[in-house]
Design brief:
By secondary structure, the protein is an alpha/beta fold. The protein has helices at about 10-20, 35-50, 90-105, 120-130, 145-155, 190-195, 205-215, 215-225, 230-245, 280-300, and strands at about 1-5, 25-30, 55-60, 70-75, 110-115, 135-140, 165, 170, 175-180, 185, 190, 250, 255, 260, 265-270, 270-275. A six-stranded parallel beta sheet has the order 3-2-1-4-5-6, sandwiched between helices. A three-stranded antiparallel beta sheet has the order 7-10-11. A three-stranded antiparallel beta sheet has the order 12-15-16. The longest helix is centred in the last third of the chain and has 20 residues, at about 280-300. It binds 1,4-dihydronicotinamide adenine dinucleotide.
């Protein structure tokens, strides 16, 4: 299994480390416009393989993509303090277009996972430029947002995050929405779970947890300049579902009504195996439509 990374910055290198530690690859290639950085990260990662398994890890130019089964893209500009993800569009479209052309050329059979923001718009651009089947181009979408919300609810309700079931869908950004109508804890609708709970700590808190989730990146970036660990864990989880053909349902960015947007999909060896249509309340449906409209407008402005 050959997995390549285009972008060796904070997100790319941490995701590569997470993929490596999960033993998902036999060969890892690191590519970055900053060759010294790519070389340094590759060498550092290679030394970590002694604790996992025999693995090749090296840096290369785009030719190194040859034979990659999965390519993870995190190259480009990151949000600065107070900047929205959508404000990065203009800066990153050109970079992602160039990278996509190289992936088409050297790794035409790969599944591409885009992490660069705005993740939905740039996954859409990648799909258009590569002309790959849409199922083989995925954005990390709202996988990270979904786990962020699950961890907050889980901590409040003193239950494992694995037993909290709720999705965030829509733009990975300000117009995303939580699908409260389908939220469950341990198979019990969340409203019922809260009614029976003696702690009574979540009265009115659920919506606050969502707001905190939506603003998490702004908060973390204002304190440490970037986010990397949780996105790396989320991205390597998506990669795991691909390479092990786990068929997990994850809220990746995929093509829904002609635009890439965070939505539940079954993820396996072919990328998106199937989109899982979920039932939304009228209010959720309206918010989802609005989120898609915003993304469509950004895609249109990217003139792809
Ligand atoms: P960074 O600045 O640390 O790394 C970006 C890397 O891209 C740099 O090493 C740079 O040399 C490289 N690069 C720039 N242009 C390139 C090109 N044309 N070809 C190859 N490499 C190129 O940024 P960081 O923190 O790693 O973030 C990367 C991206 O990931 C940003 O767009 C950020 O907003 C996004 N991100 C996405 C998340 C998600 O949930 N999808 C979460 C966190 C960040």
């Amino acid at each position: 299994m050959k997995i390549s990374f285009v972008g060796a910055g904070r997100v790319g290198s941490t995701t590569a480390f997470s993929v490596l530690m999960k033993a998902l690859a036999d060969e890892i290639v690191i590519i970055d416009i900053n060759r010294d950085l790519a070389q340094g990260e590759a060498l550092d990662l290679f030394h970590a393989t002694s604790f996992v398994k025999k693995m090749k890890v090296y840096s290369d130019d785009y030719e190194g993509l040859d034979g990659s089964e999965v390519v993870i893209v995190s190259a480009g500009m990151a949000q600065k303090k107070g900047e929205t993800r959508l404000e990065l569009t203009e800066k990153n479209v050109r970079i992602i277009t160039d990278i996509s052309q190289n992936i088409s050329k050297y790794a035409p059979k790969s599944v591409i996972l885009n992490l660069t923001n705005p993740v939905d718009v740039l996954a859409h651009v990648t799909w258009k430029v590569t002309e790959f089947p849409f199922k083989k181009v995925i954005g990390s979408g709202t996988v990270l947002d979904t786990v962020r919300l699950r961890t907050l609810i889980a901590a409040n309700c003193d239950v494992s995050p694995m037993s909290v079931h709720i999705y965030i869908i829509g733009e990975h950004g300000d117009s995303e929405l939580a699908v409260w109508s389908g939220a469950m804890i341990g198979g019990v609708p969340i409203s019922h779970f809260c009614k029976l709970c003696e702690k009574k700590t979540c009265n009115g808190m659920l919506e606050k947890f969502f707001e905190k989730t939506k603003n998490a990146a702004y908060e973390i970036i204002s304190k440490k300049g970037s986010t990397n660990y949780a996105i790396a864990a989320a991205a390597s989880d998506i990669v795991k579902s691909i390479v092990k053909n786990e068929k997990r349902v994850l809220t990746v960015s995929t093509l829904v009504d002609d635009v890439y947007v965070g939505y539940p999909a079954i993820i396996g060896k072919n990328g998106v195996e199937r989109i899982v249509n979920i039932k939304l309340s009228d209010d959720e449906n309206q918010k989802f439509e609005k989120s898609k409209q915003i993304l469509k407008e950004y895609v249109r402005l990217s003139s792809i």
